[in-house]
């Protein structure tokens, strides 16, 4: 099979043997894999990984081709996606408290173990979710990031006093969170430097947009839009660590900041301001796949307009480099 293999410096397209599945695994023929900021951070070296060489890629959709001896035959031939956190032990402190994404034995697909930038991938059968027939493989590739978007609000419940939310960064995650926020009847303010993305977000509903390249004092502008006190909730999906201090300045006293995108980067922040103004900090990562599948199946969440371009596996480096263009939202890899 063909696979994109990270050798510690760059990606190489190689012919390798398909993975051999264990009794509890299935072999998935990968149809589409989404390119994520995490993948780009791995290739750039910003996010060190424990396994080299590594096949990256964790936004995976495909068809079950083969089953391990202990796997329910019902999965044969199913259109599926899979959760990314494998090797869950169901025995540690975190598993006992239903925090499975923090299991001490956890191995993440495409980060700790080989992922989906390949024609085939072996995964544990308990990770599988069937893709509804109404969803294309391309749209279904958004299930994993949409689950992460829903997790934003699972970890940070909306209170009655929360009336507005500011999203910093309009990549795919920011656009998904905005659609969920609109469903929750929040006043939404979107911040980005791409006019194309700022125009797209208005198609989701009533959203106030701010082009960060055209505003001298972003936090002052946000305070004007939020009664002079700052935003109730600020969410960072930019992946740009320099934005965090703008976010702190834009958040109201006793407000909430949710950090979604890091990609291995670090930045100094004004800790004193956070403490003195009693701002609450939230973080989250993977989320509920069934909720994401339902959101796409019902049509409540729109994703097709986020697909900027689809590339074959041989052009995966081009798909990664495309993000140098600030107007790019999402690139996909389609296997042949």
TrEMBL record:
Protein name: L-threonine 3-dehydrogenase
SMART domains: PKS_ER
Sequence similarity: Belongs to the zinc-containing alcohol dehydrogenase family.
EC number: 1.1.1.103
Cofactor(s) it depends on: Zn(2+)
InterPro entries associated with the record: ADH-like_C, ADH-like_N, ADH_Zn_CS, ER, GroES-like_sf, NAD(P)-bd_dom_sf, Zn_alcohol_dh
PANTHER family: L-THREONINE 3-DEHYDROGENASE
GO molecular function (one): L-threonine 3-dehydrogenase activity
Keywords: Metal-binding, Oxidoreductase, Zinc
Domain Enoyl reductase (ER) stretches: 8-333
């Amino acid at each position: 099979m063909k696979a994109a293999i990270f050798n510690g410096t760059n990606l190489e397209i190689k012919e390798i043997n398909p993975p051999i599945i264990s009794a509890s695994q299935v072999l998935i023929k990968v149809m589409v894999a989404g390119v994520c900021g995490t993948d780009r951070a791995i290739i750039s070296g910003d996010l060190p990984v424990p396994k080299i060489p590594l096949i990256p890629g964790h936004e995976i959709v495909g068809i079950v081709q083969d089953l391990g001896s202990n796997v329910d035959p019902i999965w044969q031939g199913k259109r599926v996606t899979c959760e990314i956190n494998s090797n869950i032990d169901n025995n540690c402190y975190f598993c006992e408290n239903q925090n499975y994404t923090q299991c001490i034995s956890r191995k993440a697909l495409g980060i700790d173990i080989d992922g989906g930038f390949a024609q085939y991938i072996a995964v544990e059968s308990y990770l599988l979710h069937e893709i509804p027939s109404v969803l294309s493989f391309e749209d279904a590739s958004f299930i994993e990031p949409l689950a992460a978007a829903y997790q934003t609000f699972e970890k940070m419940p909306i209170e009655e006093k929360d009336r507005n939310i500011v999203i910093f960064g309009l990549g795919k995650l920011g656009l998904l969170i905005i659609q969920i926020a609109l469903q929750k009847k929040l006043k939404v303010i979107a911040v980005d430097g791409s006019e194309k993305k700022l125009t797209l977000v208005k198609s989701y509903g009533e959203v106030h947009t701010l082009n960060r390249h055209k505003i001298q004092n972003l936090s002052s502008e946000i305070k004007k839009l939020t009664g002079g006190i700052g935003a109730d909730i600020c969410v960072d999906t930019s992946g740009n660590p320099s934005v965090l201090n703008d976010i702190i300045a834009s958040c109201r006293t006793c407000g909430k900041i949710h950090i979604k995108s890091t990609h291995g980067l670090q930045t100094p922040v004004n800790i004193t301001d956070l403490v003195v103004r009693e701002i609450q900090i939230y973080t989250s990562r993977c989320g509920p796949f069934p909720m994401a599948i339902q959101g796409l199946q019902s049509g409540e969440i729109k994703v097709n307009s986020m697909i900027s371009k689809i590339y074959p596996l041989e052009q995966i480096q081009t798909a990664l480099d495309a993000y140098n263009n600030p107007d790019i939202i999402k690139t996909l890899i389609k296997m042949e």
